[in-house]
Amino acid sequence: MSKIAFIYPGQGAQSPMMGKDIIEAYPAAKAKFDAANAQLDFDLYDICHTENELLNDTAYTQPALLAVSSAITDVITAHGIMPDYTAGLSLGEYSALVAAGSMKFEDAVKVVRMRGQLMQKAGQETEGAMAAIVGSDRESIQAVIDQVDGYVAFANFNNPKQIVLSGEKKALEACYPLFKEAGIRAIPLNVSGAFHSELMRSAADGLAEVLGEVAIDEAQVPYLTNVTGSVVASHLETKELLVKQLTDSVQWESNVREMIDLGVETFVEIGPGNTLAGLIKKIDKKKKVISVSCPESLETLKKHLEVC
Fold first, then answer.
1. Is residue 132 classed as helix, strand or coil in its secondary structure?
2. Taking the complete model, does pTM exceed 0.90, yes or no?
3. Are residues 145 and 159 in contact, defined by beta-carbon separation less than 8 angstroms?
4. 5-40: string of b/e by CB count within 10 Å (b at 16+)?
5. What is the pLDDT of residue 1?
6. Mean pLDDT for each consecutive 10-residue tract of the chain (308 residues)?
C-alpha cells in the first residue's frame, strides 16, 4: 500500500490571512491558536489575520507558521487521515515533530519563539545574507565561492535545480558578478541573516539551552531530519539534531528521496503556499503532492484519498 507523508514549509511561506479560512470553518483549528496564544506575549490572530509587517519578522513568523501548520494538521487528522512519515523544511521540522507526537505543541511554540529571536539577534550581529542558485550544480557553485575572500557556505540542497547559499554579505556580493560571468543564476534572498551556516553559531548555542528545558518523546510516526536527510533513529538524538540544523546544510532533497525510497506516493504539504510542492516536482514529478491550507484544498485531499 502506498504511503503518505505530512510535510511542512519553513520561513518564507507565510502570507497575510494564513489559516483564517480553516479557523472559521473548524473549531479544532481555533483551539490550536488559543493554545499557542497562551504561550506567547502577543496575539497570533492579529499577526496572522491583519495587514502588518510583524508577520515577516523572524521572531513572530516562526510561531505563527507553527500554529497555522499544526492547526491544519489537527483538522486533517480529525478526518482520519494519518501520516506514515513526517518531515519539514527548516522551521517546518517543529511542525513535523508535533505531528509525529515527539514534541508537545505548547513546548514547540515556546521553542520556536525563542529560536526566532535567537536567529534574529545572530543575524543582526553577523551581517549575513543568503542567495538562491538556480539551475547549477554544487561543483560549479563551489568553483565561484573559492574565488572570493570571506565566508560562504551551502545552506540548503532543496532539489537538483536549487541550492541556497549563506554567508557574509560582502563575500556573497563578491560572488554575484562571478556567477553572472559563469552563466549561473543567483537570486539574493530577503532574509535577516545567514541561516543554516556557522554565522548562526550563537543562535545554536542559545537554542541548545532552550531545548534543555523541553521533553522530547519517542515519535509515534517516523520523522526525518534536515541534518542527515534520513529518519531519526532515536528520539534521544532529536535535540542535538535541532541545534545542528541552525548551522548545518538543510538536506531537503535527501529527505524527499528517502521518503520516496520508503514507499511514499502522496506528499501532503500542510501550511500556507505550495513551495514544497514545487521543490518535490523537480525531484520526482510522478509523485502526488497536495498542498492543504484551506477547506477547499482539504476537500481535494479527501477526494484523492477517498475519505468521507
1. strand
2. yes
3. no
4. bbbbbbbbbbeeebbebbbeebebbbebbebbbebb
5. 59
6. 92 90 89 93 89 87 95 96 98 98 97 96 94 96 97 97 96 97 95 95 98 96 98 96 98 98 97 95 95 95 86
Q: Which amino acid appears at position 65 of this protein?
A: L
- Helix 238-245 crosses helix 201-211 at what angle (to 10 degrees)? 150
CA atoms within 13 A on the CB side of 83: 29
What's the full length of the chain, in residues?
308
Phi, psi dihedrals of residue 90, rounded to the nearest 5°: 55, -115
Q: Do 277 and 266 touch, CB atoms closer than 8 A?
A: no
What single string gives the DSSP state of each residue in 237-274? Answer: GHHHHHHHHTTSPB-HHHHHHHHHHTTEEEEEEESSS-
Cα 294 to Cα 21, 24, 27, 168: the distances in Å are 6, 10, 14, 39
CA distances to 125, 168, 198, 241 from 148, rounded to whole Å, are 22, 11, 17, 30
DSSP E strand stretches across the chain: 3-8, 85-88, 128-134, 152-159, 162-168, 185-188, 264-270, 288-292
* Region class of 196: left (phi > 0), else alpha (psi between -120 and 50), else beta: left
Contact 68, 18 (CB under 8 A): yes
Task: Choose among 91, 152, 158: nearest CA to 118.
Answer: 91
- Annotated catalytic residues are 90, 196
Q: Which residues pair with 268 in a beta bridge?
A: 6, 290
Residue 191, classed as helix, strand or coil, is coil
Which DSSP state fits 218?
Answer: P
Instruction: Give the three-class secondary structure for 19.
Output: coil
